[in-house]
Amino acid sequence: MKTLRHAVALVTTLVSLAAVACSGQGGSSSTDIEQEPTASAHTFKVRAEVMRLPADGSPEIYLHHEAIDGMVDPRGKAMPMDSMTMPFALAKQSLAEGISPGDKVTMTLVIDWPAPVPVLVTALEPLPPDTQLDFSTKPDKGDEDDAEPDVGGTRPPT
Ligand SMILES: [Cu+2]
How many CB atoms within 10 Å of residue 28? Predict the structure, then answer.
């Protein structure tokens, strides 16, 4: 079910992207997306690995992102997103400058369902190359802290 919902969200994104692309008048910066956030905007910082850079004329970057637990659907309901590879619209093509496939980044992701582009990346910050990303699909919420080290004064003073 998560995958299905995710697919619906993705189709919505792609339709919006197509609308943006069609309204462009040509020119190198026609894929930059300028929109004011609505009152429904949610901003997330999400770590990801860059899989594919935007090709000419397309604002989409493909990122393998970690799970996004706080994601919401268009009605404001929780819609946690599993880790996966998917395209994201970049607010500005210049965000991808200096970034290569395989790089690890923290993206600033704005989810804003009423906006023309509901899923938009507004910043990409490089992470150290040795950063270990967590691509497990099920966030492990288990409380495994019960193995607390036994610290303390059971040893009698000498
Ligand atoms: Cu996703």
Answer: 9
